[in-house]
Amino acid sequence: MNQKLVQKRDQHMDRHIDQQKEQQTKETIMKEAILMTSAARATDVPASGLLEIALVGRSNVGKSSFINMLAMRHALARTSNTPGKTRLIHFYRLDPKEMDPFVLIDLPGYGYASVSQSMRRDFLKMIESTLLKRPSVKLVFLLVDARHAPSQEDLKVEAYLRAYAIPYRIIATKQDKLKRQDINKHLSIIRTAFKLPDISSELGPHLVSAKTRYGREHVFELIRLASSTFARGGRASSFEEQKDADRDQKERPKG
Length: 255
Ligand SMILES: Nc1nc2c(ncn2[C@@H]2O[C@H](COP(=O)(O)OP(=O)(O)OP(=O)(O)O)[C@@H](O)[C@H]2O)c(=O)[nH]1
Ligand SMILES: [Mg+2]
What we know:
- Helix content is 40%, strand content 18%.
- The protein has a single domain, classed as Rossmann fold.
- The chain contains seven helices and seven strands.
- The longest helix has 23 residues, at 3-25.
- The mean pLDDT is 85.
- Helix 4 links the parallel strand 5 and strand 6 (168-173).
- The structure holds guanosine-5'-triphosphate and magnesium ion.
């Protein structure tokens, strides 16, 4: 690799490491984290009145672990090595210090190989109807495994979110399983698959690890942004809005 490229890559990695160091020094403290309720259908549960964020992604991608990581609890959300376990929709209320409380909705994972075709369709339908019939969901975190290219189902869900202008952010999980020198390559595969506009876009991909808590503070930053918009009666920016914002940012004259 030529000298300039090496330098650029190292600078990028230094930023990642700085982010990690910073996170170790000032972690968001969780005052309270509870399982509010579980339900077969999201419409069975009344709107919480709080900012609601839905988590979607393949089975085993790490949705439940992600909740535990944010909550700083080991077993608030049930994790498992048997994919496809989470069948109900779980609602968690997180109440961090110096931040408005919010609700995380853990939706059943899709794409597990041994699940029948019709069940796979049911899962996707459940996710779609949840997002459409529950307007109190103001933001979606679409989780993908940082090591792999997004699946057909991931792309389907994302196309759906775009089509209905539902604001979403892509979260790339299991960062700890990537080699340092491979991180940029993997992020770029994900960005290209989803046709995300820019490396620095708020849409993501945002890298996290439930194991090391890498990226935890960054996720809280995303939630804070959504929370302040929510407090003003709005919701986070959708794909098109964020694309425009990214473009404006780029075109704005420097200095
Ligand atoms: N090394 C590592 N393992 C992780 C991470 N996140 C999740 N895992 C592991 O991946 C497996 C699946 O994690 P879950 O959190 O249960 O995944 P899920 O998306 O909730 O799965 P379903 O409930 O089946 O949809 C578990 O064995 C976790 O320990 C991570 O950041 N790093
Ligand atoms: Mg789960």
